[in-house]
Design goal:
By secondary structure, the protein is of the alpha+beta class. It has helices spanning 3-8, 23-34, and strands spanning 18-20, 52-56, 61-66, 69-70, 78-79. A hairpin with a 2-residue loop joins β3 (61-66) and β4 (69-70).
């Protein structure tokens, strides 16, 4: 992910800054996705594992990155504020 792009991106809902999701948290998130324990904000199923993602600086919302492009749609965000350790 380009550092300059990351500096100007923010959560479209809260305007909070975004940070790259750590490999450990990405692995944990993908395990929850595989177990069908997470869904997008609109209630739809997350089709498969995430390769990369961004998380708000207050660790409440995750946005996936597809082919190097952040998907900054509120309906396709993943709420993680209730997950312990996020």
């Amino acid at each position: 992910m380009d550092r300059k792009l990351l500096e100007i991106l923010c959560c479209p809902v809260t305007r909070r800054p975004l940070l790259p999701l750590s490999k450990d948290k990405l692995k944990r998130l993908n395990a929850l996705i595989a177990d069908d324990r997470l869904q997008y904000a609109d209630g739809s199923k997350i089709a498969g594992p995430l390769q990369e993602a961004l998380i708000t600086d207050n660790s409440t919302t995750v946005y996936r990155i597809e082919d190097g492009i952040p998907v900054m749609l509120e309906d396709e965000s993943i709420r993680v504020q209730d997950l312990e350790g996020f």
